[in-house]
Design a protein that fits this description.
It contains two helices and 13 strands.
């Protein structure tokens, strides 16, 4: 889920940071610049891991700041495709189930990747897995907001953000998520954790009854 990415940049250190050591000021400015930001085709930056090289510092005419070439490693959130993660349901819509990890919200489990058969309940605004029972009846399992859910990452999408002009009240600018994950739960063991916990309890109960009969 988390990886280390080697990066390099030129850090501009203003005079207000000159009382700190060079490494301290670089650490502060790198975290301020990159933490919680998405880098295209890299992932979501979490925090600086370490600084691997500090180059020469330069002060240019008319600029009281120093400019320093830095090589460093940053902790990046970028799960692998096919990796299994656990999050919480943020909301449901006709598009599918929207999931959050707490620090990352742009995760969608589309309709075709839900357990089959499933339907969307307009009243509850939740997807429902119509779980087939042995007697032929169906038991409704609701995917409510706030429930813990286990899913498999099936794809990732990066969108390059282009600076836009001033926002207008007549034509509000639509924000596009720079990094999105798509997941799936249409296989055994995936979906709400409570589904499988209750099944395990039922299986344990059946085993205890068999032991008593013996």
């Amino acid at each position: 889920m988390f990886v280390l990415s080697e990066m390099k940049d030129v850090i501009r250190i203003t005079p207000q940071y000159f009382h700190q050591s060079l490494a301290e000021s670089i650490t502060t400015l790198l975290n301020r610049k990159l933490a919680n930001k998405v880098v295209l085709d890299v992932g979501l930056c979490i925090a600086l891991f370490d600084i691997t090289d500090i180059g020469h510092s330069h002060i240019f005419p008319g600029d009281g700041s120093s400019h320093t070439e830095v090589k460093f490693r940053f902790i990046i959130f970028r799960p692998m495709v096919e990796e299994i993660l656990t999050g919480k349901i943020r909301s449901c819509s006709r598009e599918g189930v929207h999931v959050t990890l707490g620090f990352f919200d742009d995760i969608l489990i589309p309709v075709n990747a839900l357990q089959h058969p499933s339907r969307f309940d307009e009243t509850e605004q939740a997807w429902v897995w119509e779980y087939p029972k042995e007697d032929g009846e169906k038991h409704d399992l609701f995917m409510d907001s706030g429930e813990s859910i286990r899913f498999r990452v099936t794809s990732e999408t990066f969108e390059e953000s282009i600076p836009s002009g001033p926002q207008s009240t007549e034509c509000p600018v639509q924000t596009i998520a720079p990094y999105k994950l798509t997941g799936g739960i249409n296989e055994p063991g995936l979906g709400l954790l409570t589904w499988w916990e209750s099944q395990e309890q039922d299986d344990d109960g059946d085993e205890e009854e068999e032991d008593k009969e013996e």
